[in-house]
Give the backbone structure.
Amino acid sequence: MSPLEHKALWGLRSDMHFLNHGSFGATPLVVQEEQSRIRARMEAQPIRYFVRHVPVELTHCAGLVAELVGAKAKNLSFVDNATAGVNAVLRSLPVGEGDRMVTLSHVYPAVRNAMQALAAQTGASVVEVRLPCPVLDDDWLNALDQALLGARLAVLDHVTSATGLVLPIQAMIALCRKHGVPVLVDGAHAPGLLPLQIEALGADWYTGNLHKWVCAPKGSAFLWAAPKHQANLQPPVIGHAYGQNWQQAFHTLGTRDYSNWLSIPAVLDFWSGIGGLDQARAHNNGLALEAEILLREGLGAQVAGPVEMRAAMVALLLPESAGVASKQGSLELNDRLWQAHRIEVPITPHEGRLWLRISAQLYNDLADYRALLSALQAIQVE
């Protein structure tokens, strides 16, 4: 199946170069159709749907996700997104004045905000260990090791957002275990992008999005918790199941549209029908590497990290001539690429420079990245 044929499966515009699968993913048409059917069932008999069907079907779907990510079904619950999962964990912890929470300088902005908000409310503090970019060695792990001494909590990325780096999560978790520090892994980008065996990692909590690389409907994510933490874990919104099984507490959220989570079987069937996630991962990783070489050589750009820290997302440092390294500058460059070339790709300011992050999915081919290279080269000479 060609990239153009794959693009049709996702319903994406045929006139654009979509190089930003990593931000929100894309939901296949067959999954969108299944979600519409689920919504029709809800409206046809709301009482039976909410009272009888939803609890049973959510448990079944959670089991499918658990199998996908290498977890036990009883240790996993649905949440709307990884940010909600992070907030649930943060607000369930007995953090107090003088406690330190540790994260990395590449932390997702919403997660940074959640940590800072908790610190402001409790008198705790947030320490960000600098992760250099580009990453040239592992000295930063020594800095993380030092920062964890006496810390109350670590919140660590599995895959960084702006820079697309696959971090050595097992080594980082081992450092947390060494210091007796509970660790929450923000795996927002990891499900579908990476093969996962969450139970084997040794983390305390792990949250990940399903609407990115698994391609579930928007608002599909999960939170995994080690059994010892489940009794104290509460969802961001307390509902009817307060004080009951932690999974029920997260799933019993009152009247809401559950079709995003209940569409999980359709998503997994979609992948099975086109060769499976493992095959897609291999293709996407290979394409991302080819695209990285093309752009790096064409722009003379640095890459955010070595090949072993990359998957189907790659971040490259743009020349200073590309634009002002600010939020406004990144938006302006993004808009120029879209309006003049129909290229959708994220541009992010990081440590005083603009970074470009490409994604590779089955609907992409090298022509997409050649178009991006030509557009950026044209901007440089303006």
Observations:
- The radius of gyration is 21 Å.
- The first strand starts at residue 17 and ends at 18.
